[in-house]
Amino acid sequence: MKAIIIGATSGIGEALALEMAKQGYELGLTGRRTENLTAIQQQLQNTAKTHIQTMDVTNYEQAQTDFMSLVTQMGGVDVVVINAGIGSFSTKWEAELSIINTNVAGFCAIAHIAFTYFAQQKKGHIVGISSVAAVSGGAQMPAYNASKAFISNYMQGLRQKSLRKNLNIAITDIRPGFVKTPMTEQNRFMFWVATAQKAAAQIAQAIKNKRKVAYITRRWLLVAWILQLLPDKMMAKMG
Ligand SMILES: NC(=O)c1ccc[n+]([C@@H]2O[C@H](COP(=O)([O-])OP(=O)(O)OC[C@H]3O[C@@H](n4cnc5c(N)ncnc54)[C@H](OP(=O)(O)O)[C@@H]3O)[C@@H](O)[C@H]2O)c1
């Protein structure tokens, strides 16, 4: 099996690359930090065949071109994991715009080109890294929660489009709770924190099982359920 991971240079994406390499996947790894891609490729040289492609998902058309040249270099792909994402506690507009550009438009740029490629093959699997944050608004990072709600909703649409057109494209919506990564270094309040390795192992299993939606770790399903029931006043207090 061949898989591309968009955003594989640190945290969950990097851990997932190591996990999928162990499981025998041939990998295409992307991200903006070329030096990290090269280091991971070197680390995996005795484990798996890897291809690397520097890519910024916010250069939308260029990212789509880079994606297709990676697919060509790999001689095809079976699974595309769209993991690239950012968060920020800044209240500035520039920070919100960055989140929207990366998590919404950047996500769609890759999901769109991957879906188009898989539609021609009449098979494939798109995996999007959303979040438990998708299920509810959040006072601390409203744009982040909304971007993840967009991702989950967009993937539901892609799943229905695949069914409607008989395309045999599986869609997996991954919703992690807290995972210890460079992104969460700034978080002061966290609980049930998983290591990136544990999260990656569960994500790989969800991919294998072609799950529609998977909470990582599994008990975050409970939190998601509670979050949907809490009134705004209580959510505001929790932050
Ligand atoms: N950690 C958590 O608790 C948690 C919880 C729920 C969901 N998530 C989601 O999990 C995903 C991975 O996050 P993480 O926690 O592992 O954080 P991370 O270590 O900061 O990883 C983020 C990844 O996204 C890539 N990326 C960011 N902007 C990009 C851009 N413009 N173009 C291409 N790649 C870009 C980064 O690569 P470069 O910087 O090299 O470009 C990096 O590989 C995100 O979508 C995040 O929202 C995380």
User: How many separate domains make up the residues?
Assistant: 1
Helix content: 40-55%
Binned strand content: 15-25%
Widest β-sheet, arrangement of strands = 3-2-1-4-5-6-9
Give Rg in angstroms.
17 Å
| Structural class label | alpha/beta
The quaternary structure here is single chain
Which word captures the global form?
globular
Please name the CATH architecture.
3-Layer(aba) Sandwich
The CATH H-level homologous superfamily: NAD(P)-binding Rossmann-like Domain
The CATH top-level class label: Alpha Beta
Write the layout of secondary structure elements.
Layout: E1 2-6, H1 11-22, E2 26-31, H2 34-43, E3 50-54, H3 60-74, E4 79-82, H4 93-121, E5 124-129, H5 142-164, E6 169-176, E7 179-180, E8 194-195, H6 196-208, E9 213-216, H7 220-227, H8 232-238
Bound molecules: NADP nicotinamide-adenine-dinucleotide phosphate.
NADP nicotinamide-adenine-dinucleotide phosphate (NAP) is lined by residues 7-13, 31-33, 36, 55-58, 83-87, 102, 106, 129, 131, 176, 178-179, 181-184.
What would your notes on this structure say?
With 239 residues, this protein is an alpha/beta fold. The chain has one domain: Rossmann fold (3-Layer(aba) Sandwich). It is built from eight helices and nine strands. The strands form two sheets. Strands 3-2-1-4-5-6-9 form a seven-stranded parallel sheet, with helices on both faces. Helix 5 links the parallel strand 5 and strand 6 (169-176). Helix 4 (93-121) runs parallel beside helix 5 (142-164). The termini are far apart. The relative contact order is 0.13. Bound molecules: NADP nicotinamide-adenine-dinucleotide phosphate. The site of NADP nicotinamide-adenine-dinucleotide phosphate has 31 residues, from helix 1 and helix 4.
